[in-house]
Design a protein that fits this description.
With 599 residues, the chain is α/β, with parallel strands linked by helices. The chain folds into 3 domains: 239 residues, Aminohydrolase, N-terminal nucleophile (Ntn) domain (Glutamine Phosphoribosylpyrophosphate, subunit 1, domain 1), CATH 3.60.20; 187 residues, Glucose-6-phosphate isomerase like protein, domain 1 (Rossmann fold), CATH 3.40.50.10490; 149 residues, Rossmann fold, CATH 3.40.50. Helices cover 35% and strands 22% of the residues. Strand 25, helix 17 and strand 26 form a beta-alpha-beta unit. The protein is globular, with a radius of gyration of 25 Å. The termini are close together. 55% of the residues are buried.
């Protein structure tokens, strides 16, 4: 959530900041602003609404030449979306942008009030700016380190001082921030896409570290103010991969990229039939597996649980990260805690990882971003190869997570199944790109079906086992981009109360990819159909749904082992086309952020 960009160099600073903010729009935001550092003052331009409004406003202004600048897209936490609450925030001598939450801002606000210093906004960020301003006596390092000793919570800060017009300062705790290195220019950013147009080289700012950035130099300091040497990293994404490439939305572009990214993800860990070479110790699990995640990654975990328990007979518990960390979990050193996160920066998932490590439990991170905090802190990390995912609603990152969990299940099951069955299942996994393409060919059919459901205000997904896991993800995808109220239920639970909500015209999507449970699920579907529900079935081509399905989407021929992965493409397209038909901003749905880096 929120986005930070900073620049110092000889380019048009205003343009670099605005373009960088546009590249961060996918993170979710409600207001935007920039600060331009000139010889005599720092000029601030900010407003509620889209970056385009900010760009128009800046163009109308007589912008003075600037030597450095910082920009921000805000997702409201403290104070409603407004121009006043937008970033940047300032004191008399300092201007800052901030990602995260200052948890003790009320205490600091009271202390500042006693000195006659009062904010004009409702934000925690302005309190941090006023604190830093009050501490500043000409030494930026001393002021910044004194300030962060007082700040509690999470933060990534981009900082300008009025008397240092050529320099940006940056510091972080729990919120990600990178420092981009160019030729005669340097950057700060909350995410890589913001700077790809200019450089692929960057440094990761670690917990408690500070960076001092001019156009020609980047200096790093640890929390004890000692100079640091840091390893420079290179992003393997190209700028074009973060652009729409002719598609109307990033989401549908990313849906169409799934054949390639699933192949790439699996190919990293299955070479010549050898699964996860040199990682055998990770799979020597004597106890239970805890999969901990949020949102779609949690649903990937639900799918993984089904296949791991079925194939490897290892007990798996799937936990919502925000619940897990506060439930005082009972963990043993023979267990394995698996943390799944697209960004590798999800706050609750990171806290769960640290809790497990503190108890001496082995940890495994499944992430999409190399060098992210979870990737660095987990004992072992497996990367998905989804590449940059710009649309807020995840598609390809989720699919890569599920495919990777299926591959992990095969590795865990090596000692229990025959070599022939292992090879058969591997062939099925590696047939996914072809099968996904077959579902993508059904887009026009799925679009036509979506048009019939676009005016629904309530919709249910039902399924059993692996189909319940897919129902959960499909329901989330629909509601987060279409704003249709949608719920997912284990099909057998309907008669335990929920069936009271079914009335004539209620849409129900029945997911039926698990052949061992189709007969039971069909019975549940007949119950809702008899009560007037409009039923859409997602199933295999040889399953007869004629007496209870009003609409039908059939999968290409595939095994139960991979059917939920193949089926996810259909429900992604279904959600996408309903959202488009309703006129929604598909890539940037309201109130949502791409990477949730605060609790």
């Amino acid at each position: 959530m929120c986005g930070i960009i900073g620049y110092t160099g000889d380019r048009d600073t205003e343009k670099v900041l605005i373009e960088g903010l546009k590249k961060l729009e996918y993170r979710g935001y409600d207001s935007a602003g920039i600060a331009l550092s000139g010889e005599e003052e720092i000029s601030i331009y900010k407003n509620e609404g889209k970056v385009q409004l900010l760009e128009d406003r800046v163009k109308e202004a007589n912008v003075a030449p600037s030597f450095a600048g910082i920009g921000h897209t805000r997702w409201a936490t403290h104070g409603k979306p407004s121009q006043l609450n937008s970033h940047p925030h300032r004191g008399k001598k300092v201007v800052i942008v901030h990602n995260g939450i200052i948890e003790n801002y009320q205490e600091l606000k009271g202390e500042l009030a006693q000195k006659g210093i009062r904010p004009i906004s409702d934000t925690d960020t302005e309190i941090a700016a006023l604190l830093l301003d009050q501490l500043y006596e000409g030494d930026p390092h001393a002021a910044i380190f004194a300030a962060i000793k007082r700040l509690e919570g999470s933060y990534a800060l981009g900082i300008l001082f009025t008397d240092r017009p050529h320099t940006i300062y940056a510091v972080r705790k729990d919120s990600p921030l990178i420092i981009g290195k160019g030729q005669g220019e340097n950057f700060i950013a909350s995410d890589i896409p913001a700077i790809l147009e200019y450089t692929h080289d960057y440094f990761l700012l670690e917990e408690g570290e500070m960076a001092e950035i001019t156009k020609d130099n980047i200096n790093f300091y640890d929390e004890k103010k000692r100079p640091l040497e840091k390893e420079m990293l290179t992003a393997d994404w190209d700028e074009q991969s973060a652009m729409k490439g002719g598609f109307p939305h990033f989401m549908v572009k990313e849906i169409n990229e799934q054949p390639q990214v699933v192949r790439a993800t699996l190919g990293q860990y299955a070479r010549g039939g050898n699964l996860f070479p040199n990682q055998e110790s990770v799979f020597d699990i004597k106890g239970s597996i805890y999969i901990v995640a949020c949102g779609s990654a949690y649903h990937a975990g639900l799918s993984g649980k089904q296949i791991i328990e079925k194939m490897a007979r290892i007990p798996v518990q799937v936990e919502i990260a925000s619940e897990f960390r506060y439930n005082n979990p009972i963990l043993r050193k023979e267990d394995l805690v698996v943390i799944i996160s697209q960004s590798g920066e999800t706050a609750d998932s990171l806290a769960a990882l640290r809790l497990a490590k503190a108890q001496g439990v082995p940890t495994l991170g499944i992430v999409n971003v190399r060098g992210s905090t979870i990737a660095r802190e987990a004992a072992t990390v497996f990367y998905t190869a989804a590449g940059p995912e710009i649309s807020v609603a995840t598609t390809k990152a989720y699919l890569c997570q599920v495919a990777l969990l299926n591959l992990m299940a095969l590795k865990m099951a090596e000692k229990y199944i025959s070599p022939e069955e292992l090879q058969e299942k591997l062939q099925q996994l590696f047939s996914l790109p072809t099968l996904i393409k077959e579902v993508l060919k059904k887009e026009s059919q799925i679009k036509a079906i979506a048009a019939k459901f676009k005016d629904a205000e309530h919709l249910f997904f039902i399924g059993r086992g692996q189909d319940y896991a897919l129902s959960c993800e499909s329901s989330l995808k629909l509601k987060e981009i279409s704003y249709v109220h949608s719920e997912a239920y284990a099909a057998g639970e309907l008669k335990h109360g929920t069936i009271s909500l079914i009335e004539p015209g209620t849409p129900v999507v029945a997911v039926m990819t698990d052949r061992s449970r189709i007969a039971k699920t069909a019975g549940n579907i007949k119950e809702v159909h008899a009560r007037g529900a409009i039923v859409l079935c997602l199933t295999h081509p040889d399953v007869d749904c004629s007496d209870f399905a009003d609409e039908l989407i059939t999968l290409p021929e595939c095994s139960d082992f991979i059917a939920p992965i193949v089926g996810a493409i259909a429900t992604q397209l279904f959600a996408y086309h309903i959202a488009v038909a309703r006129g929604n901003d598909v890539d940037k749905p309201r109130n949502l952020a791409k990477s949730v880096t605060v609790e």
